[in-house]
Structure formats: structure tokens, C-alpha cells
Amino acid sequence: MVSEHAAQVLVASNRGPVSYALREDGSLDSKRGGGGLVSGLSAVEDKLWVCAALGDGDREAVRRGVSEPGVRMLDIDAGVHADAYNGIANSVLWFVHHMIYQTPVEPVFDAEFRRQWASFEAYNRAFAEALAEEAGVGAAVLVQDYHLSLVPGILRELRPDLRIGHFSHTPWAPVDYFRLLPDDIGEQLLRGILGADRAAFLTRRWADAFIGCCTEILGGTGRTRVGVHGLGADADFLRRRSREADVDERMETLRGQVGAGRKTIVRVDRTELSKNIVRGMHAYRALLEERPEWRERVVHVAFAYPSRQDLAVYRDYTAEVQRVADGINEQYGTPDWTPVLLHVDDDFARSLAAYRLADVALVNPIRDGMNLVAKEVPVVSDDGCALVLSREAGAYEELGEDALVVNPYDVSATAAALHEALTMDVDERGARTKRLAAAATALPPQRWFLDQLDALRA
Length: 458
Ligand code: G6P
Hints:
alpha/beta; single chain; binds 6-O-phosphono-alpha-D-glucopyranose; seven-stranded parallel sheet
């Protein structure tokens, strides 16, 4: 029975807006997350966010009944969650949509995969059941991302009265690549999302790929509408936050580390296979090699924050990033100049400081749903910043005209683009930064979310 106080707007995602850590004295420390969804939802009243408990702190919070208003954390069995999140979502679905398998040897879909898939189904079912319990009659439910692809289908069966949306924050694989998945699994994923009234994506390109998969594999998208909402940067928040004292302090520290009179090539990412951090460093090495005039005159400021460290490939990649950075520093560094400044401890204020002082921002993912760094830098930049941008990032659709666009696999072309960016005329750089900032903020998070809600209810 649905209570009359049940929520009218529900959001479901694996990672919620808050997380808990257990302190040594046994008390719980809560931390609020950031990101487009958090700011997007801030304008909405009478809402409930359903998310998974992700670690021991979260699980303890659920057990103690500690929660934030408007948030329901699901304490899904830790083994089931690990199979669903690490096994299926991050090792299979993320790899398919970002096309990062080394296909001669992987993927391998065997009995272990089938076992994990059963957990993925159970985890999606747990979300669908919680949503069915919490949603008011005719409520709007916005299901987020590849972790929860099966939720719309299950929820539709449980609660035909609801308006269900699904939003993909990742790219969508083209049909030939999507077909790596076992046939029944691919079909189940598509049918899961098609349980929604509306399936939405960050760019036209990913939406078309999804429609392509549905058409080829199922013969069409059925009654589901497909839409595009290109999440933009949160200009008001960024401009205010980036002028706070802690950011100023970090700018001073960074300036000291870079050294007076030197230019900076800045990148900020999760240490993520799809972000192409290693090739970015190879391009920087090629720049120093082929254009010795840049030696001692530029620093590659690379912030690569820990991500998905339960997975061996991510740990290996993290080590590789460190190894390549160390190699460049050993080869070219001088007593007075460290060519690569690699920081791996997550610090948002320091990221903003780097955005402000960057001469060049390097955003070269092999594939990326949107990439908000590309949109945030031009908004925050103090003196204008040249953007070297991969054509495989979703942001390319909106920023391509004023960025220096690269094929992310082409190290030589990326090195050439870095040189062009470093030597760009100041006035041109300033004018481009203004246009980039305007394009980047065309759809701020709150409107991005409300547009989806309106479209779902229409
Ligand atoms: C991408 C995904 C999000 C995810 C985020 C961080 O942006 O689309 O769903 O939350 O990466 O990854 P994590 O695995 O740490 O949640």
C-alpha cells in the first residue's frame, strides 16, 4: 500500500549524495558529495534519493538508523553489491560503453560471469522494490546510469502507474561493439531501459547509438521516448567557490611548485582507464623531446585521483601513471624544474586552483559521456585557458569549435596541439575561453534536471 506521504520525485543511483565513515571512537562522520545530480536536485522539493550503502561506514549508518532527510540507503548484501558493482557494472558495462576491452583476450563470458549477473539482477531488483515502496501514486522516478539498467523494467511491472525515466551518464556503445555481450544479456539490458517512459543521454551521439542497438537487436525502441540533455557546468557555484580563501592558498602553493614564469598544462581526472592519462603524458614527453625550447618553461600539472581501487586493472593503471610521470621527471627534470607535478590525493579546492591558473587544459579521454572538467575550466579560468579536447568526449559536441580538437590515440597530434595551445595569442585565447564558458554553462544542473522532469511528465 502506498502511503499518501510518499515521494512525488524519486532519484535512484548507486552512489548517493552522502557517505559515512566510521571514526576510531565508533562515531560516524558524514560527508556530502558533489556533482551534477546533487546540484541538479537541489531545486526540487518533496523528493527521495534511493542509493546503495557503499562501505562499512554506510552500512553501519543504515544499521543505526542514521540518515539524512530525503535519502534512503539500501543495505544490499556486501557480496551481492561487490558482484554487481565491481563485477558487472564496472568491469563489463563500463568497459563495453567506453570500448576499453583488449578484445583478443577479453571479455570472457563464463560461469563466473553468469554468477555475477545473478547478483546484478538481485541488486537491481532491490532498488526497484525500494522505489516501488516509496513512490507516491503517479510519481516521477529518475533512474541513473549503467548500474541500474534493469530497474525501469522491473519497476514498470511492480508499479505501472509511475512515470519512469532512465539517464545514462556514460557513452553508449555502437551496436557492433555492444554485441560483444551475450545475446540474452544484451537484450535484457535494452529491455530493462526500455521499461522507462523516457531514456535520456548526454549527447545525440550516445542517444543514436542506443537507438541503433534497439533497432538492430529488438526491432525498435517500442513506446519509450529517447531524449538528450547535455549537462552543463554550474557557473554560479564554481565562480563563488573558486574565489574562496582555501583556493587562493592552494594557488600560492601551486605557483611555488610550478616556478615563476613557467606555463602550465593542467589535467584533473579520476584515475580512470578511459581518461587516457598515460597517453597524455606521452604527448607531453613528445613535446619536450621535439621542441626542446619548452624544457624548463612548462609544467604538466596532473591531478589523478583514486578511483575503483578494488579492481586490479585500476590499481595497475594507477601505478602506470606514476611510473610514466616518474620516468619523464627522471629523463628531463633539473634541480630547479620538475616537468610533471603529479598529485593523487583528492582535493577539490586544489583542483579549482589549478583550473584558475591553467594556461592549457588537457582533456583527452578515449571515450567519455560528457567530461565536466572541459566545461569547468573555462568558467573558472583567471586569464583564459586553451582547451585541448578529445573528439571522443561528449563535451566535444558543444565545445568543439573553440577547443583544439584531437584524436586521443594520436600522441604526435596531441603533442602538436599542446604546442599550439601554449603559443596561442593571448587575445584569441581570452575570446575562445569566453565562448567556451558560454557554451559550457548553457544548461546548468538545476535546469538540466528540471528539463528531464518536465519531459518525463509531458
Ligand atoms: C561516472 C559514472 C557515475 C559514477 C562516477 C564515479 O561518472 O557515470 O555513475 O558515480 O563515474 O565512479 P564511482 O564508481 O566511484 O561511483
